[in-house]
């Protein structure tokens, strides 16, 4: 005698807001999922279900690393392995991935447990970055590797085109840190002065405090990272103007005159 079949699990009624967010997300990714379950799993945090996106992250991380490496390899044929690795490190990191996720509204489409949701998990950089990697894996499963690679190109093409090679691809926060260290000064401290909105509507007011120099710069952006980078750029410009290194001040001032 066969066992009676288990009753099918009653699925919760789809949340219209999350459905819209998922549709908008697919538009940003440039991929329409044939298997919506893959998209759902890529957006499911471990706090929500045992069938979550952690294994997807493993595959997505590899896709992302290879795809960005290939883009940089093609874009900068004269660069050494070390230079290319440095450029990639400035592009493939939690802050950048979280910024990309926010620009696509990933936070609004996530499946999070109640506790994670209440603690602001929808905007936590680690969760957003992991979701981006998981989405790349989901695209490769839904279609193929080429489709996932094309999505990476879609998301990173402008960032690679805008790399400031005069600074060896280093971002303003890194340059500010190096400039302060060269002057034997303490590292800057960043703090959020105001935060409003969620997802695509988020706004961060960030202050960059140069401590004993008594100077603070401020910036606003749609992500914490972008605001910190903007504030760091302002601080770096001020530092180089007001506290130039010996031997560089004359050249810099002549160039500006």
TrEMBL record:
GO terms for biological process: mRNA processing; regulation of gene expression; rRNA processing; tRNA processing. The active site is at residues 61, 133. Pfam families: dsrm, Ribonucleas_3_3. Its cofactor is Mg(2+). Residues 1-20, 233-257 are annotated as: Disordered. Its EC number is 3.1.26.3. Residues 1-11, 248-257 have a biased composition (Basic residues). It is an enzyme of class 3 (hydrolase). The keyword Flavoprotein does not apply. Mg(2+) binds at residues 57, 130, 133. Keywords: Cytoplasm, Endonuclease, Hydrolase, Magnesium, Metal-binding, mRNA processing, Nuclease, RNA-binding, rRNA processing, rRNA-binding, tRNA processing. It is found in: Cytoplasm. Residues 171-241 form the DRBM domain. It comes from the Bacteria. It catalyses: Endonucleolytic cleavage to 5'-phosphomonoester. Residues 22-144 form the RNase III domain. InterPro entries: dsRBD_dom, RNase_III, RNase_III_dom, RNase_III_sf. One of its GO terms (molecular function) is rRNA binding. The keyword Metal-binding applies. One of its GO terms (cellular component) is cytoplasm. Digests double-stranded RNA. Involved in the processing of primary rRNA transcript to yield the immediate precursors to the large and small rRNAs (23S and 16S). Processes some mRNAs, and tRNAs when they are encoded in the rRNA operon. Processes pre-crRNA and tracrRNA of type II CRISPR loci if present in the organism. Belongs to the ribonuclease III family. Homodimer. This is Ribonuclease 3. The lineage of its organism: Bacteria, Pseudomonadati, Pseudomonadota, Betaproteobacteria, Neisseriales.
């Amino acid at each position: 005698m066969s066992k009676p079949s288990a009753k099918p699990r009653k699925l919760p009624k789809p949340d219209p807001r999350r459905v819209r967010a998922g549709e908008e997300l697919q538009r940003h990714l440039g991929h329409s999922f044939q298997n919506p379950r893959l998209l759902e799993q890529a957006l499911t945090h471990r706090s929500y279900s045992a069938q979550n996106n952690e294994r997807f992250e493993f595959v997505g991380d590899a896709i992302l690393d290879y795809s960005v490496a290939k883009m940089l390899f093609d874009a900068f044929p004269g660069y050494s392995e070390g230079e290319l690795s440095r450029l990639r490190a400035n592009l493939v990191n939690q802050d950048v991935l979280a910024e990309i996720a926010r620009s696509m509204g990933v936070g609004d489409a996530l499946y999070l447990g109640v506790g994670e949701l209440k603690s602001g998990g929808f905007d936590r950089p680690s969760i957003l970055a992991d979701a981006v990697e998981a989405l790349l894996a989901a695209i490769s499963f839904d279609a193929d590797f080429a489709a996932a690679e094309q999505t990476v190109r879609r998301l990173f093409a402008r960032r690679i085109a805008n790399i400031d090679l005069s600074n060896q691809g280093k971002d303003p926060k890194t340059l500010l840190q190096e400039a302060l260290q060269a002057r034997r000064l303490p590292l800057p401290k960043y703090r959020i002065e105001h935060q409003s909105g969620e997802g695509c509507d988020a706004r961060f007011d960030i202050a960059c405090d140069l401590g004993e120099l008594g100077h603070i710069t401020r910036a606003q952006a749609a992500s914490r990272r972008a605001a910190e980078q903007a504030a760091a750029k302002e601080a770096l410009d001020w530092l180089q103007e007001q506290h130039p290194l010996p031997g560089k001040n004359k050249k810099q001032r002549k160039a500006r005159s």
